[in-house]
Write a structure and sequence with these properties.
By secondary structure, this protein is mainly alpha-helical. It folds into three domains: 44 residues, no CATH class; 27 residues; 60 residues. The protein contains five helices and no strands. The radius of gyration is 26 Å and the shape is flat. The protein starts with 38 loop residues before the first helix and ends with a helix. The site of zinc ion has 8 residues, from loops.
Amino acid sequence: MSATETLPPTNAAPHCRVCGDAFTPHPKVKDRQKLCAKPACRIAWRLEQQAQWRKRHPTYFQGRYRDLKAWRENHPAYQRQWRAQRRTASQQPLSLDDQPFAREIQSQLNRMKTGTPWQQAQKLCEIQSELNTQLHQLLARGQAAAEARYNLS
Ligand SMILES: [Zn+2]
């Protein structure tokens, strides 16, 4: 660690370029950080940067549709096949053993309507945790199915 890193903060605290508030930069980013931590400032900054970029490159997005149209004319079956795949994938039930899980959640939700607010909140946390577990399993299976279908692996 160098001597400069142990110095007390100076009065040159950086200010957010969007809202103007002073902020403490992340130690790894230091003087390169331009924004405070507020998500709204980050979104506003990104939108502004994108608008300026489009101003500097006014023709970048022009003619894109013409290129796309030409590509699609050379690949006439692409969209039909893509839609058919999507339809098949969305209509397939994940599996029969997902249905008892859905019933269990429903019965827990029904039971939640009774009891004190504290008990209801606890029940909600249990359901949320169970949903999280199930969701992660489903996502892993969906990922595996997509990899198998589209040969991504
Ligand atoms: Zn800000």
